[in-house]
Amino acid sequence: MTLRELYGKIDGDYDKALSIMRMDKLVDKHIRKLTDSSVIVDVIEAGKDMDPNTLFETSHAMKGVCLNLGLTKLADAAIVISDEFRPGNERTLTDAQVKEKLDEMEALFKKTKDEIQNYAASLI
Asked: Residue 96: how many CB atoms within 10 A of its CB?
């Protein structure tokens, strides 16, 4: 499997990731590192307590990582949470709706992580 094929399977934007990182080698390195990243775990954990500051900080960090990697669907999911808890913004979602969004984000991340692991295994 190629990187471009991986990005097709995870609904990512390979060309965007390549334009940011400039080399296939860097895209490959950083997309593989995502499987060991705690970024999604941190967001999900923050959602258990519904701590606004931690939810903002963790989802904002996740948004940045995902945008740099061209993972637009994951970035969009993180943006929803980040904007919801951005200091100064008025909340528009109920706690139940936030938890639903977090569940969707977690499922999307699991699919992405599984495909990245399949990609890595295909290179061995």
From this structure: 8
CATH for the 3-115 domain, from 1.10.260, 1.10.8, 1.20.120, 1.10.3470: 1.20.120
Contacts of 60 by beta carbon, 8 Å cutoff, 6+ apart: 78, 82
Q: What is the pTM of this model?
A: 0.90
Domains of the chain, residue spans = 3-115
Alpha carbon distances (Å) from 96 to 76, 108, 118, 119: 19, 18, 33, 35
The CA-CA-CA angle for residues 110, 26, 106, to 5°, reads: 15
Residues of the chain scoring pLDDT < 50: none
pLDDT above 90 as % of the chain: 94
